[in-house]
Predict the structure.
Amino acid sequence: MSWHVDQDVLHRYQTGAIDRVVAASVEAHVTECAECRGDLILDEIWLNQSWAGIADRVEPGRPRVIERLLVSVGVNQHLARVIALSPAFRVSFVLAVILVMGFAVSASASDPNGWAFRVFLFLAPLLPVAGIALAYGSLVDAAHELTLSSPIDSFRLLVLRAITVLIVSVGIGLVAWPFIDTPSAFGPSAWLAPALALTLTTLALASRFEAWIAGAMVAGGWATAMALALAGDLETFNAGAQSVYVLAGIVAGLVVAVRRNSYDREGVGR
Amino acid sequence: MTVTVADIRKHYGSLHALDGVDFQLETGITGLLGPNGAGKTTLLRCLATVLAPDRGSIDVLGFDPDRPKDRTEIRRLIGYLPQEPGFYRSFTCFDFIDYLAILKEHTERADRHAEVRRVLELTGLSDKSTTKIRKLSGGMRRRLALAQSLIGDPRVLILDEPTAGLDPELRFRFRELVTELAAERTVLISTHQTEDVAAICDRVIVLDAGRVMFDGTPRGLIDLAKGKVWLSDDRPAGARITWRTASGEFRAVGEPPEGATLIDPTIEDGYLMLVGAAALEEDIQAA
């Protein structure tokens, strides 16, 4: 190298008191010239922070849409990450919910008060159950063992995911509801109350069994009850039955609360 | 004493996975040896607070995993590498470790990212940080699993077969890393590799059928086969196990005949004398 950076220029470069064009020229030179590079007095802390800053731009993947959305409404970034991994936001789950609701809308138009509505009443409350069955456990969460052994509150995690599942499935259901041709005696609570009862029952059973087994048990029980009841009329969903669902939901909710410490370890109470 | 295990029992139906296990651990590396199905993984899962034993008590750094609050404390202080950790295959190494660091309560973003970089560096995965897990080889995934166990610089490390699937060079690097960490920490390693135990463990516990069969130094385990290993020109009858060596002689372990050429035993010989030929054959098949 036949020329070297002027000491004054070098000093101004280091203190940032230099325009960009000259700075770029200094950088191009010191990349090649070991002598001038040696004259640079580096602030190690600043340098490490700079590298960390660059790495922070490159290494973390772009957060999911849901995570960014949650952060934008004020949810903590770490909490948003945990919630965003909920099965409620998996395309397959959202599609399943939309399919069931779409079926109810299209079928009820041609078959009011008939089987389409009954099938809808049977399927709709099972959607959040399916979501919860997918929310937690070794079968569906590849890193379940690692989750269990970490200090995060597993019960809170399950509840958070259950809530997101409920929000997504009930939300889509409520959007679809006005388009479903229903007998006048039934409001949205016809399926909302059973949905809540089945969801809480699934959570209660999940304190003892794996979530997917709990979900399967609830689905099986519900299918049996419906097979017996739906063959006749829609009594299963009338106002009297609603109070039974609400009561069942409260009981299941109490079980969940009492057994809240049974969700973060296997082999408890079995 | 950092870890105390007192008479823990765990059964699955009629199978007694753990049948009254007792030991205490201090700083240093302890190897847990045993045939498949001996209860090693069940024991480590109990220590990692993932599985509740049916009976008996565990104490980790003064905390009792049966108490919910203590359980959380233990989880803050341990690093655990499960036998089958499970990965989110669509995640990059960085994002996966970052997610697990969140689960381990590293909520401050910049500090967490620095910690993720530290553990990836320790396990030699820095240059793979933006690689998706599905593109990693088996050995790299094992290192990634080890990396997550180091998040937060835990005081107790529970490692279930950390060297399974690692090539010799990586195994040496693993030994280097773990011996460095063990200067101030308690490390419990379950393994099939008797060489790992001989190389790095201060202490070895042999588990068979849910019971502790041996608890002592690797030297002590080797000594169990002292005077029980010999070379012979023909396949000897009565030996527990015999194989033909590269030199054409037969190496035998068991009760030697009169006048046999005794040789120095290895830790494998000691293990064999303890656990029996059937178990060793099972291990060879598994490997």
